[in-house]
Amino acid sequence: MMQQRFCQSLLTGLMSLSQRAYWLLTHRFLWVGLLCGLFFSVPTAVQASSLSVASLHTYQELPGQTTFRSKQSLRDRSDRSWQVIVFKRYQADGLQGLYLRLVGFPGLVTLDTQRPLTVATGSSLQWTAAAELDPQTPALPDNAGQYNFAETLDALKGDIPLQIDIPLSGGSIAELVVPPYAVHEWRELAASHT
Fold this sequence. Notes:
It is a single chain. This protein is of the alpha+beta class. Helices cover 36% and strands 34% of the residues. It has helices at residues 2-53, 150-155, 180-191, and strands at residues 56-62, 65-75, 81-91, 94-104, 117-120, 126-129, 144-148, 162-167, 173-178. It is elongated. Mean pLDDT is 81; it is low at 42-53.
């Protein structure tokens, strides 16, 4: 009887030991698999996301007139959505201009294009850009503004986040944070086809 109890307790101990060993092995393999999956999938996901972010486009608008454009959808610090378009247009006789066009949601914002917008980095660098329409655009609605952006982009030396302070009617401003990937795209557009 004593031997039988001893054998049962020994078997129970071995079973619980094997269950613990099984648990440890499966969880180790789970962690190793998870880490390997992350190691191999993160670079691919980063590459895929950077490809999906790119939005440089070329348009042949008229014979002898080509526009290169970057378009981003960004939100300001008040969580309002903006279409942010940087474009440059060439005509047969050369570069017509490099512009930043900002379009807010109709009815939510009214831009004050009489005041320049301010572009700043996290450091002490800051630029202003005056409102300027290209010759093909006679006017824009109240929720949009267009600015000469050539000097600002020329002065940028890196793909750093920017804050654009957009003057709104009534003296307020909309603070738009531009991520580095968008700045990279803008600088790429400015440097191409010169």
